[in-house]
Amino acid sequence: MSQTFSVIGTRPVRHDGVDKVTGRALYGADFQAAGLLHGRVLRSPHAHAKIKKVDVSKALALPGVEAVVTSADFPDPGNKMANLGEGAINLAHLSSNCLARGKVRYRGQAVAAVAAINGHVAEEACKLIQIEYEVLPCVTDVVKAMEPGAPILHDDLVTESMSESNGEKKPTNVAKHLQYKLGDPDKGFKEAAIVIEKSFNTATVHQGYIEPHNATALWNADGTVTIWCSTQGAFTVRAQVAELLALPIAKIKVVPMEIGGGFGGKIRVYLEPVAAILSKKCGKPVKVLMDRAACFEATGPTPGSFIKVKVGADKNGKLVAAEAYLAYEAGAFPGSPIWAGCVCIFSCYDIPNLLINGYDVCVNKPATSAYRAPGATNAAMAMETVVDEICQKLKIDPLDFRIKNAAKEGSRRADGPAFPKIGMIETVQAAKKHPHYTAPLAKGTKTAFKRGRGVAAGFWFNIGLKSCVTASVNGDGSVSLVEGSTDIGGTRTSVAMQLAEALGIPVTDVKPSVADTDAVGYTDVTGGSRVTYATGWAAFEAAKDIQRQMIEKAAAIWKVSADDLVYERGVVTSKSDASKKLTFKEIAAEAQKHGSVIVGRASVDPPWPGGAFAVHIVDVEVDPETGKVAILRYTSVQDCGRAIHPSYVEGQIQGGTVQGIGWALNEEYVYNDKGAMTNASFLDYRMPTALDLPMIDAVIVEVPDPLHPYGVRGVGEVPIVPPCGAIANAIHAAVGVRMDVLPMSPPKVCKAISAKK
Fold first, then answer.
1. What is the 3-state secondary structure (H, E, C) of 477-512?
2. Cα maximum dimension of the chain
């Protein structure tokens, strides 16, 4: 049944817009306090080494230095597992990632930290810390790390496997082996008329957020700790710090500052526990900032990977079987997004017979973190290029093929769940009708350059998790909305819009704010495309709570039964007497006059939604002599369920697409044979700029999620999934080579063209 809305689907100015465009908004590095000290971190110059001895005496003797910390100042958490925001994690690993304990496992790992009267003194003090290392062999390639005889990062690590046991319990770099099976793949491949099998290598990639990591901490004399930081989840920071410092949660308050991007990379703590211990030692607030090189070398990028895909189809173009082997870098500590890669690789399609093996592999690189649909982009690159080759060999239009094989309601994923109502088919159909797809490929001005068009699809499952909001009605009829979700992409407004829609009031009458961990109920991380879905749902329920109280107030005013009243579009009316009407503002004024307080409260833990799908179309031009690929035209089609604020939806689609283009064509960590990253700056780590890109045409498809009161599906992650596959397919259409590496940078494209010749 269609719904009509007064607020949802409009494009109001964002509530925090003026502060951000004028520079008044406060980010983590902007925090100031009386007596503030400045912290700096000393990092390992080696990719793999034992820490034999640490001497901080000279640093402590430097005038202006007030504290020095090492891992010896942290409690030893032991091998305890805890779920702290990104799934289960070993606390010993998390602690060592903040300050190395006994061993460093990647270049840039934090070893010690200093607090001083200013940053310059702190940096000089770091140089005076003397550390004796025993350098060990390193391994930075995921395939080599799995081989017998590879350098072992963790002597106590054995493979956790779903399919087989490691009977000998030998130390290994393979932390986990996942396996998913559906139907009978062997039988399916025997029925196939065509089988394509390919291998792919993808490089490590960084999120590229504009704001570096930061944290300020004050360890008060009463034993409480306050932390100011730019994070995707204040409650997640609170939980991690509590575990790492062996403190009760009640002793910790986390104040989220504005955040200059995260994309999954600002969930795990790096500086917060360090700043807290420095503050404890000196009794003053301490602010610790990362420079850009540390962000590259010492925070969580998304993993490089090795993927093998085998796909079979019958002569009519129906997919009958598929197999995948995925090995993902975990970095220095277990925890790559291998599960997500396994879940997403085939989920755009209804395939009856599947076998997926996934491996979580430690290498001497920083521990990986989420990056916008973590694990899915690598997987889609592999699957979508193989699908394109099948379409070419069977002479089937690639979008017709996807419509024929699209996942739909009832299709079962390899990991078990059957899809509820989803929009994969509708998204492909919208792409097929789009003028970009129906128009012929434009001819270039340089005859030597070759042009091609490619398409690809992508899936991300999205998540629900817990959210809490409170909404206080003021005497003038405005509403103060307090929520706990960090606002990265305009979610203050998208959440406020859902509250306003449910109350039947203008969104300009809602004043949203993101609160600290003492001021609002528990709210999970801003990630997984969950905020507009889950926190918006909480706002809807809080509005329903306000509606009930408004009815009760009106009933008291009229001295009638509340059962006789109804709330509709901001007005309470009597069912039995049409003359009895009170507006939202009138009831709010009466409540204040008589000392009543109307506060809506809600906490939700909604089920995981059906997921989101996207289909991308791209035209490229390739210079065969240099291998340079130019993006000429790009269209991103995506099912968002319901576009709460269409401008924000379009912005998310465009932003994710651009990041996917960067991943496809240029971005990669480059390591030397000693495990050192050689391009740890934005000068050398090549991200796309406005000069590299056309306008991205964002096309919104709306197949409402039946679970959500307004049909919302998460938006932010799936647009990064298809670009690599779409661009690879466009390159093939242009110059006839199948790219099997990421990034598809000019040297690699040129090499592939030369190999074909």
1. CCEEEEECCCCCCCHHHHHHHHHHHHHCCCHHHEEE
2. 89
Residue 133: both structure tokens together:
């290392």
For the beta carbon of residue 340, count every other beta carbon within 10 angstroms.
23
Quote the CA–CA distance of 482 and 20 in Å, as a whole number.
Answer: 19
Q: Which of 503, 491, 494, 428 is nearest to 458 (CA)?
A: 428
What residues pair up with 700 in beta bridges, in sequence order? 638
Looking at CATH, the fold of the domain delimited by 17-24+464-604 is given as: Aldehyde Oxidoreductase; domain 4 (3.30.365)
Cβ pair 517, 238 in contact under 8 A:
yes
Model confidence, pTM = 0.97
Q: Which of 172, 66, 166 is nearest to 125 (CA)?
A: 66
CB 307 within 8 A of CB 324: yes
Angstrom CA distances, 300 to 97, 137, 145, 176, 211, stand at 10, 22, 19, 19, 15
Determine the Cα–Cα distance for residues 32 and 692; give it in Å rounded to an integer: 38
* CA 44 – CA 48 distance, rounded (Å): 9
User: Positive or negative CA dihedral for 204, 209, 214, 215?
Assistant: negative
SS3 state at 708 = coil
Which of 119, 127, 116 is CA-nearest to residue 291?
Answer: 119
Neighbours of 633 (CB within 10 A): 17
Which of 263, 714, 719 shows the shortest CA–CA distance to 533?
714
CATH of 31-136+210-261+266-298, picked from 3.40.50.880, 1.10.1040.10, 3.30.1330.60, 3.90.1170.50, is 3.90.1170.50
- Which pLDDT tens digit goes with each residue over 679-735? 999 999 999 999 999 999 999 999 999 999 999 999 999 999 999 999 999 999 999
Full DSSP string of 58-113: HHHHSTTEEEEEEGGGS----S-EEE-SSSEEEHHHHHHHHS--SEE-STT-EEEE
Residues in the chain: 757
Tens of pLDDT, residues 639-663:
999 999 999 999 999 999 999 999 9
The pLDDT of residue 1: 42
Average pLDDT over residues 246-264: 97
pLDDT band at 437; cut points 50, 70, 90 = very high
Does the fold of domain 305-462+608-756 match that of domain 17-24+464-604?
yes
pLDDT the model gives residue 164 = 56
Torsion angle of C-alpha atoms 499, 715, 399, 422, degrees rounded to 10? -50
The H-assigned helical ranges of 260-347 are: 272-282, 292-298, 338-344
Instruction: Quote the CA–CA distance of 422 and 427 in Å, as a whole number.
Output: 10
Determine the pLDDT at residue 167.
54
Query: What digits encode the pLDDT tens for the residues 409-436?
Result: 999 999 999 999 999 999 999 999 999 9
User: Percent helix, strand and coil across the chain, each rounded to 5?
Assistant: 30, 25, 45
204 with 365: CB under 8 angstroms?
A: yes
Q: Domain 305-462+608-756, what architecture?
A: 2-Layer Sandwich (3.30)
**Full DSSP string of 123-185:** HHHHHH-EEEEEE------HHHHTSTTPPPS-TT---EESS---TT----SEEEEEEEEES-H
Q: What is the domain partition of the chain in residue ranges?
A: 17-24+464-604, 31-136+210-261+266-298, 305-462+608-756
Say whether pLDDT at 166 is over 70.
Answer: no
DSSP string, 518-532: TTS-----S-TT-II
Q: Is the pLDDT of residue 491 over 70?
A: yes
Instruction: Give the sign of the dihedral formed by CA 550, CA 552, CA 553, CA 555.
Output: positive
